[in-house]
Design a protein that fits this description.
The chain is mainly α. About 50% of the residues lie in helices and about 0% in strands. The termini are far apart. It has a single domain, classed as Alpha Horseshoe (Serine Threonine Protein Phosphatase 5, Tetratricopeptide repeat). It contains 6 helices and no strands.
């Protein structure tokens, strides 16, 4: 339910699950081994991405194919999400790309 809420951008539902049901922000994962943050990035849910980052979601986590949040944002061609992740210093974890973190 947590992952499904993140995929559709249901901030109110995600907030409820985090606050009332003891769900951890990076806890449940999808069938692709994606956290709620990675799912919301892949589905271009910018408000959800912003909310999950504010709640401490780990932007460095990767899915089963080794893609982090910034890679998924680039693949989704979502400029708003890319800018948001760069502002949060979400550097690429793959050595093939330039690291944006200090």
């Amino acid at each position: 339910m947590f992952i499904a809420a993140a995929k559709v951008g249901n901030v109110k539902g995600v907030r409820y699950l985090l606050d009332k049901c003891d769900v951890e922000v990076d806890g449940p994962v999808s069938s692709e081994k994606r956290t709620a943050l990675l799912c919301s990035v892949a589905h271009s849910r910018v408000h959800m991405v912003e909310y999950l980052l504010a709640r401490g979601a780990d932007h460095k986590r990767v899915d089963e194919e080794g893609r982090d949040a910034l890679v998924l944002a680039v693949l989704a061609e979502n400029q708003s999400t890319i800018k948001l992740l760069v502002r949060h210093r979400a550097g690429l974890v793959n050595n093939r790309f330039l690291l944006l973190e200090r």
